[in-house]
Write a structure and sequence with these properties.
With about 250 residues, the protein is α/β, with parallel strands linked by helices. It is built from 13 helices and eight strands. Helix 4 links the parallel strand 2 and strand 3.
């Protein structure tokens, strides 16, 4: 009888795990369930190995997340992955897109349309955090248009079919590296997204990096923390950011 109960328990756990996997793949998990999942079950692919990508890789790897950072030449990232440790992997952009349940876009904004087209299949249905900022002097006329529309609206056209989030664009890599201390009123990371699960997961990633998430609203509201706004790279706390953006206390 004890053996039968043991077998039944194992079978029940197996069915539960299978059901959870199916629901996750279908995007049917609740936001809280997704946000509360163990870090080890949420791999992060970072496309781009510049200053922002490298710092985020380090912060999340230290927090227990499996991380892959990418470059056209993954071999060139060997010293970076070794310095970060925690099993951080290096790969191509395609590899990082396939690896991550969450994929972070950390490349020059002008390169995003081409990347979105090339990796449409790998990114489909995934949470994609876009932290790029459009600079006309670097990215050309498309940057002027993106600033006019707001990056949430503009970036959504580059990455159709994903759960897009705008976050980590309003903070410098220096602050990201030095100011992730958490606390009662931490430095804020504004977030804009349309998908509830994507918001919940991003909030958790922000907290695990040592910062405070401030959900501003849908993707169209990302314009309020774009380049040149009152909260862009100002290192404001959560309460200060809410006050600047006119947001009520949560």
């Amino acid at each position: 009888m004890k053996t039968e109960r043991t077998r039944f328990g194992r079978l029940a756990r197996g069915i539960a795990l299978l059901a959870a996997s199916v629901m996750m793949a279908a995007g049917l998990t609740t936001p809280s369930a997704a946000a509360d999942a163990p870090a080890s079950s949420l791999p992060i692919g970072i496309i781009g190995a510049g200053k922002m990508g490298a710092v985020l890789a380090s912060l999340w790897a230290n927090a227990g997340y499996p991380v892959m950072i990418s470059s056209r030449n993954p071999q060139s990232l060997q010293s970076l992955t070794q310095s970060i440790g925690h099993g951080v992997k290096a790969g191509t952009a395609q590899s990082a897109a396939e690896f991550g349940s969450v994929v972070v876009i950390a490349i020059p904004y002008g390169s995003e349309p081409k990347l979105g087209a090339e990796l449409a299949a790998q990114l489909a249905g995934k949470i994609v955090i876009d932290l790029g900022n459009p600079y006309p002097q670097r990215d050309g006329a498309m940057a002027d248009e993106a600033r006019k529309q707001g990056t949430g609206v503009a970036s959504a056209k580059f990455f159709p079919g994903v759960k897009l989030v705008r976050a980590f664009n309003a903070i410098s890599f220096v602050s990201l590296q030095k100011n992730g201390h958490g606390g009662a009123d931490p430095i804020a990371i504004p977030i804009a997204a349309d998908d509830k699960r994507a918001i919940a997961v991003t909030e958790r990633l922000v907290r695990d990096a040592g910062f405070g998430p401030v959900v501003v609203g849908p993707l169209s509201s990302a314009k309020t923390f774009d380049v040149g706004t009152d909260v862009y790279v100002k290192d404001l706390t959560v309460s200060q950011t809410r006050a600047k953006l006119g947001l009520a206390a949560p």
